[in-house]
Amino acid sequence: LPGLHILAIVFALEVSVGKTNTVMALNNSDVLLPCTFTTCIGFQDLVFTWYFNSTELIYHGKIKSKASEPFLVGRNPRVEFVGSTTGKDNNISIVLKNVEFSDAGKYTCHVKNPKEKNAQHNATIFLTVVQKMVETDNTVTLIIVGVVGGLIGLLILFMLIKRVVLFIIKKTQDGKKECLVSSSGNDNTENGLAGSKAEQKAAPKA
């Protein structure tokens, strides 16, 4: 039924690891594995568990209610809880200490809320461990941007020159037209041309 469908959406338990589900860490460093959960009707005796590669339990905690912080049930000695559930966000993040290459893999944050008829949900983070962080070489990008910018600049300059040249040509042609118009009305008396005043003089008498 539509009403029951809406009710299920409202009561849904959700778990999130943030905007990205990939984390990179340096060998022998500490890395934060973020996780938060949301529920519209609150929680009671909520259980959350962190797994490595889906099977190995590395942290297990419980939370009595919104008014209390989580208490530890079991954990890997290198895992530390750094979240809080009495604040605005129900944060159940952990820190993995002294990361090794063998720690690379999938980390799953799993939550179970008895108050929502034991509703369960989880989210996953993929951890990559590296010897050193590689700086991104932006040289090629800068060259491409420079070339494109230069081409655009040349195109704009070419268009400006073209407009100036066309403007000069137009002005020159307009000037020639003016000269032709003014010369067509000249008196051709001294030229001896047909229709000139020289031919209109009477012949001298003998």
Describe this protein's structure.
One of its GO terms (molecular function) is transmembrane transporter binding. The protein is an alpha+beta fold and 206 residues long. The chain has a domain at 17-126: Immunoglobulins (Immunoglobulin-like, Sandwich). It has helices spanning 2-10, 139-183, and strands spanning 14-16, 22-26, 31-33, 36-38, 46-52, 56-63, 71-75, 79-81, 90-91, 94-96, 105-113, 119-130. The strands form 3 sheets. It has a 6-stranded mixed β-sheet, with no helix packed on it. A 3-stranded antiparallel β-sheet has the order 1-4-9, with no helix packed on it. A 3-stranded antiparallel β-sheet has the order 3-10-8, with no helix packed on it. The model is unreliable at 1-10, 186-193 and 195-199 (pLDDT under 50).
Secondary-structure topology with pairs:
Layout: H1 2-10, E1 14-16, E2 22-26, E3 31-33, E4 36-38, E5 46-52, E6 56-63, E7 71-75, E8 79-81, E9 90-91, E10 94-96, E11 105-113, E12 119-130, H2 139-183
Parallel strand pairs: 2-12
Antiparallel strand pairs: 1-4, 3-10, 4-9, 5-6, 5-11, 6-7, 8-10, 11-12
